[in-house]
Amino acid sequence: MKDYSIRHIAIIPDGNRRWAKAHGKLPWRGHQAGVRTYEQVLKKALELNVYCVSFWGMSTDNRLKRGHREVAFLFALFEKTLQRALASRELEKNDVRVNVLGEWRAQFPKKLVRLGERVIKETEKRKKHIMNLLLCYDGRSEMLHAFRRALASKGKSAGDPKRYLYTRNLPPVDLVIRTGGDPHLSAGFMMWDVADAQLHFSNKLWPDFTPEDFERAVKDYLRRERRFGA
């Protein structure tokens, strides 16, 4: 097994709806194609021995501003994805813990919330790898919540927002990959954890992004010199 010695990669998988439009399909078919890409890229990340991978599956705005039919289709896709995570021999073999991060408990149907809780519970003792799904996630809301709790806290945790982030038990992000051709971050994406991250922007729409593209992004990251302000 290759080991690229990279701890945490966060992915913004942009371009599903544009991919569907370009192929004459309904918007949610792009999300369906995007799930296949997610599974292939996760497999490659495990092959490369990446410790932690975070996928942004849905923003809070996606949940609130998209049409009812599209959101319902996304919920169905998330249900299938979580069920596959529960049944996955590959995730079990690779000792992958699955986290679901964001405001999904407040925004998702109860049945889907129960499934998410089950996935978290049944994989929580796994140690070798972590896979995070960010659902109904907004980085600005996360930071606001963390700052409020830090200011109200006492004792050892006083003044330390990291203790109150969804990512409090995760390492900082080394590399952010965004597909879709728009070179920017969105909605304060993991803003505390990406403070020193390198960025990789791909012009490919997410359903067209391949495991080989992912590996090239990792190799590109490893060629860069990280100075950390020095």
Notable characteristics:
6-stranded parallel sheet, 230 residues, alpha/beta, single chain, 9 helices, 6 strands, Undecaprenyl pyrophosphate synthetase, globular
Detailed description of the structure:
GO terms for molecular function: ditrans,polycis-polyprenyl diphosphate synthase [(2E,6E)-farnesyl diphosphate specific] activity; magnesium ion binding. Belongs to the UPP synthase family. Z-FPP synthase subfamily. With 230 residues, this protein is α/β, with parallel strands linked by helices. The chain has one domain: 3-Layer(aba) Sandwich (Undecaprenyl pyrophosphate synthetase). It is 45% helix and 16% strand. The protein contains nine helices and six strands, in the order E-H-H-E-H-H-H-E-H-H-E-H-E-E-H. The chain has helices at 16-22, 27-47, 60-65, 68-87, 89-93, 104-107, 110-123, 139-152, 211-223; strands spanning 8-12, 52-59, 96-101, 129-137, 175-178, 198-201. It has a six-stranded parallel beta sheet with strand order 3-4-2-1-5-6, sandwiched between helices. Helix 4 (68-87) runs parallel beside helix 7 (110-123). The longest helix has 21 residues, at 27-47. It is globular. The two termini are 33 Å apart. The relative contact order is 0.19.
